[in-house]
């Protein structure tokens, strides 16, 4: 029997440890020196932010594709996506406050972060679906400040390889934070 008041319960949330583990993986991968040293990503607050968004987008894109006959797995992917986005927002808020941004200005900056996130997600989704040079062009514009198309192509190849790698990762592995991002670059990608 279904309890008639279940809709009053607080929805389940992904375990905090899982969220922290996955978000930690995203941050660690986005901080790999090779992106800044070899691929021209500016080693600035904005450059790091944009690379963090790229990695978050790749994982959220994979979680959107979770379609299981098991409703709990589908729900878990949705909850994890929301929890990761919430953790990203907490991280951005914390970073702003650590940089000395005042309480009055933080909401405006957070709104700008949200707009940047949704704008890039839309641009990257459209670009990866379009194929060809579209993803490299979007990466060049958003991450490399419009310069370094060769480096943007390499970064786009990395993003496509990461998307493929995450696509081969089963849903349970994703939801348990038992996966790893692929290496930042391989010989196949750099040539």
Would you kindly provide a written description of the structure presented here, covering whatever features stand out?
There is one protein chain. With 191 residues, this protein is mainly alpha-helical. The chain has helices at residues 16-30, 33-37, 45-64, 71-98, 106-130, 134-142, 149-167, 171-175, 187-190. The model is unreliable at 1-11 and 187-191 (pLDDT under 50).
Shape: globular
Helix content range of the residues, please?
55-70%
The number of helical runs is: 9
- Biggest sheet: strands, sense, closure? none
Order of SSEs, N→C?
A: HHHHHHHHH
Strand tally is 0
Helix/strand/pairing class, anyone? mainly alpha
Q: How would you summarize this macromolecular structure in one to three sentences?
A:
Helices cover 68% and strands 0% of the residues.
Quick tags:
single chain, 191 residues, mainly alpha, 68% helix, globular
Task: Give the arrangement of secondary structure elements.
Layout: H1 16-30, H2 33-37, H3 45-64, H4 71-98, H5 106-130, H6 134-142, H7 149-167, H8 171-175, H9 187-190
């Amino acid at each position: 029997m279904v309890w008639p008041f279940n809709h009053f319960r607080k929805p389940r949330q992904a375990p905090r440890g899982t969220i922290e583990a996955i978000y930690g993986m995203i941050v660690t991968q986005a901080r790999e020196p090779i992106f800044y040293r070899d691929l021209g990503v500016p080693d600035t607050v904005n450059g790091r932010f944009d690379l963090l968004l790229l990695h978050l987008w790749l994982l959220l894109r994979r979680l959107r594709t979770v379609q299981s006959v098991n409703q709990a797995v589908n729900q878990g992917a949705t909850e994890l996506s929301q929890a990761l986005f919430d953790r990203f927002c907490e991280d951005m808020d914390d970073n702003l406050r650590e940089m000395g941004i005042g309480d009055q200005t933080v909401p405006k900056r957070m709104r700008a972060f949200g707009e940047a996130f949704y704008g890039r997600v839309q641009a990257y989704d459209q670009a990866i679906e379009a194929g060809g040079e579209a993803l490299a062009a979007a990466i060049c514009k958003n991450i490399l400040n419009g310069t370094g198309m060769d480096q943007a192509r390499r970064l786009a190849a990395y993003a496509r390889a990461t998307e493929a790698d995450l696509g081969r990762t089963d849903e349970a592995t994703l939801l348990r934070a038992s996966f790893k991002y692929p290496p930042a670059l391989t010989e196949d990608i750099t040539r």
